[in-house]
Amino acid sequence: MASEDELLDLVRMRNYRQVAIELIALEAGRDVFDIEALREDPEGALGGNDEITVEYDMSPRDGCSVFGYYRHVPAGQSMIFVHPSLTSERDRFTILHELGHHVQRQHLGWANVRHSLPSEIGAQLEERVADAFAAEVLIPASTVPADATWLSARTLAEVYTTVRASRAAVAMRAIEIAPEGEQATVIVTDHRGMVTFARASGDEVFAPARGRIQPGIAKMIESAFERGGSAIGPLDRGLEARSGWAQQDLQVEVALDDTWGYAFVVVRSAQRFGRKPTWDRIDDAECGNEACGTVFTVNEAVTICPACEVPKCPECGRCACEPKTSPVCDRCWLELTPAEQADPALHECP
């Protein structure tokens, strides 16, 4: 097994996946958790375990994005608390992520490395390794044959049908495992071509923003519906950015998942190695404000926001920046006027 110096080298290289692999190997030697059983059913595999238990926290999360948390009990049974999500895939990842925190406490060599770092950096490292641990258990590299590439839409669609993980987790895993130098952007969209997840391997093709329909991808998805679930070809109209520009000269592969409600998309540069990406101005843009949705022409009359570089909608004035919200009263939740903000005594609750 890796020494503390070797583990520290992995941290310096940000090779969290290899750290997770080392921890899983150590766990196999400890023989407390069945890794194969964890892959199939994390909650069931931990049932009856003397070292840790899983509990569901049904209390409201009050807008918090945390799906679970780990509570270490030094002289007893530690606990994983899960806030149930809308999908079992998300809950399985949460359980394994929190188990990753527990596992990191069980091996002195790794614990020494983690706690040798400043507190904030060590905490961030622990989170990254917990994510890597969950991904390595759920979607091992052996899921795809050694002679195949992870950066293939059809491969990702096949992986999704065989593992118990979310589409985003499968897509992210492809980026993590892809060989260094193999450049592409992996995207998950709904059946309309609206991006729900995107990550880039390398810098040849940018990762588009979530929540935006990509017309070129939407067109290729239509072809996939007509051709039995997959399609490949040039990306018509390019990959559009919020800035009003689109990256051109791209090749796209699309594969529908087993529900045909979502698609895995892999975009690569169609240019020869060494050429700079080409960009064209988009004539039309769609307002990102769901309450507006205006489609407008990007021309000299349209203002480009200097902060987010997205055209401001001529109808509602919105760009991609978060809208400013006025403070509210913590008792009645009504917005405070500028005068009431300056002097709270002026505010009267209804």
From TrEMBL:
Alphabetized Pfam families for the sequence: Peptidase_M78 (PF06114)
Domain IrrE N-terminal-like: start-end pairs: 70-146
Family annotation (InterPro entries): IrrE_HExxH
Designated name of the protein: IrrE N-terminal-like domain-containing protein
Organism: Microbacterium immunditiarum
Lineage, highest ranks first: Bacteria, Bacillati, Actinomycetota, Actinomycetes, Micrococcales
